[in-house]
Amino acid sequence: MSRNKEVTAAVVTVGEELLSGETTDTNAAWLGRKLASLGVPVVRRWVVGDDAEAIAAALGAALAVADFIIVTGGLGPTRDDLTRPAVADFLGLELRSDPEIVADLRNRFRARGVPELPVSNLSQAEVPSGARVLPNALGSAPGLLIEHDGRTVALLPGVPREMRGIVEEVLEDIIRDRFEGRLVPLVHRTLYTTGIAESVLGELVDEVRAGLPGEVDLAFLPGLRGVSIRFSTRARAPEAAELLDRAQAVLDPIVAPYRIGTEKGDLVEAIADVLERESLTLAVAESCTGGLVAKRITDLPGSSVYFRGGVIAYADRVKIDLLGLEGAVLVENGAVSEAVAIGMACGVAALLGTEVGVGVTGIAGPGGGTPEKPVGTVWFAVALKGRTRASHRVFSGDREAVRERGTQAALLLLYQMLADRT
Amino acid sequence: MSRNKEVTAAVVTVGEELLSGETTDTNAAWLGRKLASLGVPVVRRWVVGDDAEAIAAALGAALAVADFIIVTGGLGPTRDDLTRPAVADFLGLELRSDPEIVADLRNRFRARGVPELPVSNLSQAEVPSGARVLPNALGSAPGLLIEHDGRTVALLPGVPREMRGIVEEVLEDIIRDRFEGRLVPLVHRTLYTTGIAESVLGELVDEVRAGLPGEVDLAFLPGLRGVSIRFSTRARAPEAAELLDRAQAVLDPIVAPYRIGTEKGDLVEAIADVLERESLTLAVAESCTGGLVAKRITDLPGSSVYFRGGVIAYADRVKIDLLGLEGAVLVENGAVSEAVAIGMACGVAALLGTEVGVGVTGIAGPGGGTPEKPVGTVWFAVALKGRTRASHRVFSGDREAVRERGTQAALLLLYQMLADRT
Fold first, then answer.
1. Burial class (CB in 10 A: 0-12, 13-18, 19+), A92
2. Which of A19, A221, A294 sits opposite B290 (nearest CB)?
3. Which of B343, B346, B380, B348 is nearest to B361 (CA)?
4. Which of A142, A187, B166, B392 could form a cystine bridge with B143, CB 3.0-4.6 A?
5. Residues A207, A2: Cα–Cα separation, whole Å
6. Contact B59, B153 (CB under 8 A)
7. A22-to-A54, B29, B160, B374 alpha-carbon distances in Å
């Protein structure tokens, strides 16, 4: 298939609040990914205000560069909502009130205890001649589909969940039917890593990059919990899988030491798998992370099976009174030290009667750093049935970044110790 | 000043990754707010791929609708980066290598241990004839400012912190000078509320809306921690303050019972103020929130002054052994109950020797609900020097929403109890 026969999409977003920055346009990225995965890549986007002339200008320009145009926003019931008349006018279509939509709106309002349909909402029942109505299960503005001069135009509400609902419930199938045989979907896979910097991972990948199939694109997606490598290709089913397999075979040996082997790359899920399988119970003691390690662990539904609880030992007194650390150990080593991290891990396991304990102590900043122990220093330890392992890192970034990174590092040590054991 | 003499801006964003949705365009919202606050509202936006023709088409359309055009992205050193030549070509300007930029790039690379400047980076030193160079302290691509036919075009890097750096370091002043006397900035204020639903707040505000100055716009910004009301106006300094004062006088009585009176609307800061002022110490005991309450409290630097620590009593055994709850109380009332929330608040205050204790217990879901206590039920209690207060709510939303909302509700009860006391 030649490149110039490729089916392409364009998106026009309508909304003053997106221009003023009051709202971040999350629809755009979602639509970009969704349409690429369907095989209709977005080639251009416009954002315009609540202005009929601007909507028409953008639609005209979009019709010139793409086969499939989505216009989102401006379908509400107020005077500001101009998408319906602006598009109908530009395409030379008449607007007619659709009795089914009127009946549906009336029912919606009755269900909310409003007996009379507000007059302003009647505009939401207007349909350009020849347009197909796309039902909106989640709101009052239905979508509309218009065929024009060999192009397809879809008008969708701007409310993200309503827009997504219509795309996934009805529009996906329409796109597949409409452009049947011409779609080359973007297919991708993600390898999740943690414990390695993006630049270092990038250098390792550069060394093997020549071995990757040329049709496969790589993207590094860094976050506070690790760096993901997303590799993608635009190809039909069997060929796509084969290309991604070849790419993964090249990347796997590089990534293996840092890879989180769960489907979504969630370290907490990987930990949960081992704890459940081995019937182990867990407790945590945290200082600088102040509850974040326990929060991460309990983000996962069902964590009560293995997680007993924890102690947030923010004050040194709590480390001594509850976790059984000796005052002398704190004085000699300082609260941020290997001895204290290990003491916290062992102490909380003993206190809560668990097989596994985690201890974290550090300096999250912005204050409290010293030349020997700068802000960002975090010690973390794991105790597993009497065996202990500890490590430390000096993280960069602000208080939030140090706490997130310290938590991730502690969870990684826990995961590694559990994995080595099995 | 008549509306049609208003200075307006347009933004062209260049980057394939924004069309494919691999990256969410955070620059757009930031620029929208920044330019509005300077008095140059954004009236239209384009997003185009790494394609010279598309960049030129967007720039041409932008020049037709705005006085000030920002083009972001596509200034990097690779073949994909086409903004510089595409813009120069479209405006009929010649590109010339700027020796100062070359020297600066060479120094940057030397500092990183690369003795020879890579040939590809030389493209970043090319400047369209007549353009002004905008220094980029944070990256290798400087910004460029071009005057064209009474319009001003700024080319900026797409990396958010570099783009923001150039805008705040140099471009803001340039805009103020360039459009002196013609700028009418958008000025806004925010009232932060918590503990009231957006729809209810909206209805209360509707009752007084007629009393608001017509020049003032209202926006409701809902989040998991509460709903903020942002009210704004476009006016010059003394008039703007007067309009906002009038609006606030109308809104204040409505909002007062739900308002968080700190500058950024952070409940944790408001709590910290009282605890510090009154020299009170705090401990928390949490079950369903699993560390989130303590995490929120310790998000604030300096929280160690009043926060001693806490117990995450995920298992009932921990509630009994550490917090001193009686097993019979748990059996009779269930773990999610007023008695247990109060027992946890009192228990943790006694255990850690603090004046104030907080207890939270609930069903975050998705499992564990019953007809009497559905998923989303959260009981929270505060003990303050022996006095206790408890409350419960049934929150909607998923596990994350229930945990966030339960935490916020517990913090609100704590704040109210502390505020009533003083």
1. exposed
2. A294
3. B380
4. B166
5. 32
6. yes
7. 20, 7, 18, 36
Residue B80's pLDDT is 79
3 state SS of B70: strand
Distance of CA B264 to the CA centre of its chain: 10
Q: Please tell me the distance from the alpha carbon of residue A39 to that of residue B154, in angstroms, as a whole number.
A: 34
Q: Residue A60 class from Cβ within 10 Å (0-12 exposed, 13-18 middle, 19+ buried)?
A: exposed
In angstroms, the CA A273 to CA B188 distance is 49
DSSP per position, A326-371: -HHHHHHH-SSSHHHHHHHHHHHHHHHT-SEEEEEEE--SSS---S
Retrieve residue B382's tokens: 């505060």
Ordered by where they begin, the domains of chain B are 3-178 (3.40.980.10), 186-258 (3.30.70), 267-421 (3.90.950.20)
Using a CB-CB distance cutoff of 8 angstroms, which residues of chain B are in contact with residue A364?
301
Query: What average pLDDT score do residues B351-378 get?
Result: 96
Nearest residue to B406 (alpha-carbon basis) of B261, B195, B192: B195
Dig out the tokens for B313 from the structure: 């009593």
Between A200 and B335, where is the model more confident? B335
List, in order, residues 6 or more apart from B7 with CB less than 8 Å away.
B39, B40, B67, B68, B179, B182, B183
Tokens 């700024």 correspond to: B154
Q: Which residues of B touch A351 (CB under 8 A)?
A: 322
Distance CA A314, CA A361 (A): 9
**Residue A373 dihedral angles phi and psi, to the nearest 5°:** -125, 85
**Does A259 or B292 have the greater pLDDT score?**
B292
Q: How many whole angstroms separate alpha carbon B327 and alpha carbon B380? A: 19
Give the per-residue pLDDT at A421: 67
Q: Which two tokens stand for residue A302?
A: 């069902």
Mutate to test the interface with B, among A14, A26, A312, A325 (most CBs of B within 10 A): A312
> pLDDT digit string (tens) for B132-190?
999 998 888 899 999 999 999 999 999 898 999 999 999 999 999 999 889 988 898 98
User: What sign results for the dihedral spanned by CA atoms B115, B121, B122, B125?
Assistant: negative
Centroid of chain to Cα A90: 37
* Residue with token string 């030491």: A257
* Cβ–Cβ gap A49/B48 under 8 Å: no
**CA torsion sign, B350 to A352 to A305 to A340?**
positive
Backbone angles phi, psi at A131, to 5 degrees: -80, 150
Could you report the per-residue pLDDT of B204-261, keeping only the tens digit for each?
998 999 999 999 988 887 777 888 898 899 888 789 999 999 999 999 999 988 888 7
pLDDT confidence of residue B270: 93
Q: Cβ separation of A26 and B24 shorter than 8 Å? A: yes
Q: How many CA atoms lie within 13 A of B276 on its CB side?
A: 12
Q: Is B290 within 8 Å of A301 when comparing Cβ atoms?
A: no
Q: What is the pTM of this model?
A: 0.77
Average pLDDT over residues B378-402: 94
User: How confident is the model at residue B17, as a pLDDT?
Assistant: 87
Q: Tell me B171's DSSP state.
A: I
